[in-house]
Automatic annotation (TrEMBL), chains A, B:
Keyword Transmembrane helix: yes
Origin species: Cynara cardunculus var. scolymus (Globe artichoke)
Keywords of the record: Calcium, Coiled coil, Ion channel, Ion transport, Membrane, Transmembrane, Transmembrane helix, Transport
Domain of life assignment: Eukaryota
Family recorded in the similarity comment: Belongs to the CSC1 (TC 1.A.17) family.
Lineage: Eukaryota, Viridiplantae, Streptophyta, Embryophyta, Tracheophyta
Residues in CSC1/OSCA1-like N-terminal transmembrane domain copies: 5-166
Compartments where found: Membrane
Residues covered by the CSC1/OSCA1-like cytosolic domain: 188-355
Pfam families, sorted: PHM7_cyt, RSN1_7TM, RSN1_TM
Limits of the CSC1/OSCA1-like 7TM region domain: 366-468, 482-606
Membrane topology field: Multi-pass membrane protein
Protein name: Uncharacterized protein
């Protein structure tokens, strides 16, 4: 690539970014769009524009806001996990800035002033163009100038160690602060017990768990909730909820129809058959009300039966103080250690209920099977894609779907299809991959959503790094350096969600609930965001000394990412769960992995340059391993569990154990519907879904 | 080796064994020898011959006694560790008996009836003699008879799995029973805390530990004992104790001398210089009494100073119930997990005090350095031995030590020395090796004696197995099959300790304490006994299918070993500590290792025999790995720590926390000598050294 075309492409995408930013500034001030640009604030019951100057339409106002927001704001709006994501972005940004400040002024002049004999490559053309003159490749073999590049390797490494160490310490403090908070958090009073052995004494599971834990914790044990097989009850519950929604929709349509010339209105109807297109036509409101009437007692019966008959071999056990719960979640309880296995309970909203009752060895076997599948996917993913491409050649398409023939026979469409069919197959595969990996991670038997996301993210990262060719093609000099401006512009301006929201509002939404569903934002999606960032980090850090010009682009990518996502996290995205920074060790290890890859690459590169002092670089990967070892021994244990020191901090109030217990009951076994002893009605509840509750309050007002 | 010489050698050593057994039956009935043959019973305050018929001088009576003793007897006399050792011996014995019952009648006829073409080896001589006809080597390549040998491999493997599984379960039960015993065991109320961070708040270590744990365990925390640097106080204490002993000795000599013609007696004297041979002559009693007078206040001052000024960064922390202590020993306490590291406390008598204050990273570094040293020792141990042999050739000896010349010049001595000098160097090395390995294991920073012994035993095993040539030479067909009879005979008859005891009694012992010191038995010495047994097991199991005739010898080795050591454990050896069976996982893994080695050997051997179905044996090592995995997941965790379920069993009495605390005070900081608050006088004590205390009682009576 020559320098001018590089600059053209860079400035083009920068201009697109600026246009999108101006668009964002304009669109976000319109009150009708507030639910698209400020959903997180709205859900928290805050005024969207409170304290902000966005109304001035200054396209840079959001930058000022993002920069002036503190870490405490992020934690308050979006939790510790989001704060940790910013620590990651700022740490990597810091590494690139500190590296760039030294490497650019040092290495670029050294490289460009080297008198190179003009190495001629095999094609007979001079292999170096403008950009390459600025890289280590331009140096002569055995040049004394290589010393500067070696020193740079040490600089980049030590800057990374320093910032990573500070970051790990900081994240550990964030986690500790959150865990020792005086707020009552239900999951801090519970442990998850799995692999409950078969009891021969004729106890029910409930009695068995109670007896077992009461004998060990006579004073602090509160109650247990045995995990049940909820498949049937969930099905009835969902059917019931769907009916209720349908009734509300139908009533809204009916009342709307009354306002029009016809004051009687038109009662909505639907058909019972396939997709509502065939079969008998019925009055929707009457039919659904009848169905609700029919399903409600059925659900109650199913709930009772489930609680009594479908108890599985795992349970949530509650203690009336969090120190005991934290300790109990870490201890070996049984003499046979593959029974009564315990862990600190995850939040109730991120429990993967169907995984809880998988047995120890089932989990182990599933894990290894999944690893094998992922390994095969990484190695051989081109095979199914190739097959699909082969099957979907135009000739085959025409044979398989003759009705497409008139379309396909048009010359332009034909050209496009022929050129892009294989790429489309690849794109579809890559789009589905994260979902597939998340599905696999859940199939491992992992008990919590956040853990599954971490596992999927790890798999995605390995896929990216190990398919180096794909990764390099996709990222270096194309996505990573140029197009990410466009991506950030789209992220910030939320053009696509905005259009979808307005279309839905116009044509589909009938009730308030429909409308809310239309704008309710997704979570950030760490499972794909994090591996992509890590991949870019890996590539930039690997080339940082070889071609230092890449560093500013890495810095811009992470710096701008920090700004854009700071805005999005504070105003848009609503996290689905909180894992108190458990993502960090995962990130830390992979950043270090990237660093080691860089160091090993450099060992090789110095050897290629025939630099006789190249062994001097060998200590670097050893330092990195030592650093990883020390960090893991010093910090990691606290991310796996809750230190007693932290859990033993005082609470601001005596915990209401009944509410804590209820917060873990899955919705299909809803307490409001049952008169079972353990499920009696309660007035308040612990704020598990702050967003939704706060929204409900604002709606009431 | 031909068959007749084999039989001769076998019968010779058997006859020696029988002679030694008769000698044992005769000697052990003499009352004067009771302290040599029944020290364990005497120390427990029991009648040596109580309930036994040894007085009948029936040389087989001890066998009946050993066979009729129950596991409970062993635990009562010698603890769980000894019982576990017998589980090991009987499991291996069982493996060999069950294998032998099937393999001998099946394989020997198959091997001997094979019409072998008479393979002629490179020396031109028929390579097979009588014994070899009974082995797998005698089969023709690709013979269908190899199927029987393959089936035998499966039989041996599955017999091993079955017995090992039963044994692991049984040992786990033994451990659980001991740990849930209603007796108060001081170590179950304590945890060992290391890596206490530096406190900037001006607290003393004691206050720091108290504050930290009191906040987490407000109701169950009792007290802490900060580990101190006892080097100086130990030195003074030992000096004082030596003086006291000297006084007692001198007084005894003085009073003895009075009985003789001279009624005034002769006051013993000694010289103050080098080894008591040079310098001023002083009256021993006066001199030592004066010294005691001088040292006692010095010791008290040193004790106070040590407790106040020399507190180190580790502590024993006591809780007033064992459930909390068991839980606290397993939990992550601190946010920074390389500080405040905890573990369940070992018994006070096996604490390695000087290791307790080693910091986390010091322990890690020491561990790796020790591993490196052991690795180098295993690989290159022949080099120092070779050097020593070279230096100690006769010519060199004469040069270095001219005074030896007249001895060395004698023809017979010269021949012997020339032939055996290198072997002597090797023997000396091998004799010192276990001590060296134990020293290295302690240098790793391991906090307890039993753990250090396990570590040393592991290292010794690797040394034996990896130096295969040395191992095979030493054991197969020489030690393992023939000479072990002699070894067992010597063990049983205790000829050597008997002679040493009588010599000491006659010439050295002056006081009761001296006498007791002379007969006080050692412990069994698992650090060398176990690796030797494991090595023999490895060799026998590896050859079990190739040469099934080895199996009976293996069975006799372990069966006879069981009998002899049952006798010795019940009557002779006094264990120095109790680890509640923590040795078992160590044994289990190594037995499985031997099995896998056997299976891999067989894969190779079947391939050499060009047996086309040899891949059918490949599943076996995989089964073994799976078996190891399941065992480790099912049982191992409980051997690393104390399950809460087990610790929460009721005690028969409220524990006296003061006594528990005192039982951990090292002798040099003896409570009787100090009026410090934490060290006030107490009347009773928990039975930490049951042997010694019981002995003291019998002496009083």
């Amino acid at each position: 690539m020559d320098f001018s075309s590089f600059l053209t492409s860079l400035s083009t995408s920068f201009i697109i970014f600026v246009i999108l930013m101006i668009l964002f500034a304009w669109l976000s001030t319109k009150p009708g769009n507030a639910v698209v640009y400020y959903p997180n604030r709205i859900l928290k019951g805050m005024d969207p524009w409170e304290g902000s100057r966005s109304k001035t339409r200054n396209p840079f106002a959001w930058i000022r806001e993002a920069l002036s927001s503190s870490e405490q704001d992020v934690i308050a709006m979006s939790g510790v996990d989001s704060a940790v994501f910013f620590v990651f972005l700022s740490t990597v940004f810091g590494i690139f800035v500190l590296s760039g400040i030294v490497l650019l002024p040092l290495l670029l002049p050294i490289a460009i002033t080297e008198r190179n004999a003009g190495i001629v490559d095999s094609t007979g053309k001079n292999a170096f163009d403008d950009l390459d003159k600025l890289s280590m490749a331009h140096l002569n073999n055995r040049s004394a100038r290589l010393w500067a590049f070696m020193a740079s390797c040490y600089w980049v490494s030590f800057v990374s160690y320093f910032l990573l160490w500070r970051a790990y310490k900081h994240v550990s403090d964030l986690r500790a602060t959150a865990l020792k908070s005086p707020e009552v958090k239900p999951e801090q009073f519970a442990i998850l017990v799995r692999d409950i052995p078969y009891s021969s004494e004729g106890y029910s599971r409930n009695e068995q768990v109670d007896t077992y834990f009461k004998s060990m914790y006579p004073e602090t044990y509160y109650k247990s909730m045995v995990v049940t097989d909820n498949k049937e009850v969930n099905k009835i519950y969902e059917e019931l909820e769907a009916c209720k929604k349908k009734v509300r929709r139908a009533e809204s349509i009916y009342s709307d129809s009354k306002k029009e010339p016809n004051p009687q209105g038109v009662r909505p109807t639907h058909r019972l058959g396939f997709l509502g297109l065939l079969g008998k036509e019925v009055d929707t409101i009457d039919y659904c009300n009848e169905k609700i009437h029919e399903l409600t007692p059925k659900l109650e019966a199913a709930q009772k039966e489930t609680l009594r008959e479908k108890q599985l071999a795992s349970a949530l056990v509650f203690f009336n103080n969090r120190t005991t719960a934290a300790a109990a979640g870490q201890c070996v309880h049984s003499q046979i250690v593959d029974t009564w296995t315990v862990m600190n309970a995850p939040e109730s909203r991120q429990l993967l209920w169907t995984n809880l009752s998988k047995t120890y060895y089932a989990r182990e076997i599933r894990q290894y099977v999944v690893y094998l599948i992922v390994f095969l996917t990484i190695c051989f993913y081109m095979i199914p894609i190739g097959l699909i491409s082969a099957l979907t050649t135009l000739a085959n398409l025409k044979k398989l779907a003759p009705f497409l023939k008139p379309v396909v026979d048009q010359a332009e469409i034909r050209t496009v299809l022929e050129a892009y069919l294989p790429q489309i197959a690849l794109i579809v595969f890559l789009a589905l991959l994260p979902k597939f990996l998340l599905f696999l991670s859940k199939a491992e038997g992992i008990p919590s959503e956040s853990h599954a996301v971490r596992a999927a993210s790890g798999k995605y990262f390995y896929f990216s790094v190990l398919n180096v060719k794909y990764a390099i093609c996709r990222l270096i000099y194309t996505v990573s350096n140029l197009r990410f401006f466009v991506g950030y512009g789209l992220e910030l301006s939320r053009i696509v969600p905005l259009i979808i929201f307005h279309l839905k509002r116009k044509y589909l939404c009938k009730t308030e609930a429909d409308l809310k569903e239309a704008w309710l934002p997704a979570e950030l999606g760490y499972a794909t965001k994090v591996p992509t960032d890590l991949l870019i980090l890996t590539i930039v850090i690997c080339y940082s000394v070889i071609a230092p010009l890449i560093i500013p682009f890495g810095a811009i990518y992470f710096g701008l990412g920090w700004l854009v996502f700071r805005n999005q996290i504070l105003k848009v995205y609503v996290p689905k769960y909180e894992s108190y920074g458990k993502m960090w060790p995962h990130l830390h290890v992979r950043i270090l992995g990237a660093l080691i890859l860089f160091q090993i690459t450099m060992v090789g590169y110095f050897s290629i340059k025939e630099f006789i002092y190249s062994p001097l670089i060998i200590p670097l990967p050893i330092f990195s391993l030592l650093f990883a070892f020390v960090c893991s021994k010093k910090f990691y244990g606290f991310f796996q569990t809750t230190g007693i020191e932290v859990a033993s901090h005082d609470l601001k109030e005596t915990p209401n154990m009944d509410l804590i217990f209820k917060s873990f009951i899955p919705p299909s076994l809803n307490p409001d519907k049952l008169d079972d002893e353990r499920l009696d009605d309660g007035g308040a509840s612990y704020d598990l879904r702050p967003g939704l509750d706060a929204y409900a309050q604002t709606q009431d007002v």
